[in-house]
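ok trying this again, last paste got cut off
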Amino acid sequence: MNIERELQVLELISNFENISQRKIAHSLGFSLGLTNQILKKLIKKGYVKIKYLNRKKLQYILTPKGFVEKLKKSYSYATRVISEFTNYSNKLSQYIISEYEKGNKNFTVKCNSEIISLVKFIFHSINFPDIKYKIIETKEEPIIITNGNKKYIKEIIL
C-alpha cells in the first residue's frame, strides 16, 4: 500500500531529526530505491523539504502541509484497520454462532498472539453460557476446530 508506506516515511521523518535515506530504508525494510522514490514523491507534493547541512549531509524536514497529510493518512489508516477488525469480528462471530446452532459447543482455536485478543473478544461478546473454548498459541496458520472439523480462519473472514 502506497499510503501506508508514505505514512511510515512521514512518521520516521517527524520522529527523527537527522534520519538518512539509508536509515529510513533499513528501518522500514524498504529498498533504497523505493525509499528514494517515496521521498521524491513526498518532496514533490510539498510534504517534505530538504535542508542541506553540508555538501554530503542533508536533513529531511516535515512541512506543515506534510504534518497535516501525516494526520490525514494516520486517521485514514486507523479507520480502515478498525473497519477491517469489525468486519473480521462479525464474520468470525457468525461462524461460531452457526456452529453453535448446529450443536457444536466446544471450540479450540489455534492462532498467533496477534489474533488471540480478537478471538477472546468474540467469545466474550457471544456470551453463550454453555459454550467452551480453548485457545492455543501457535505460529501456524490460524484455525478453529469444533467437533473434529478444522476450518482456517482466513477462509472464514475473507
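PB: full thing came through this time. The longest helix spans residues 64-101.
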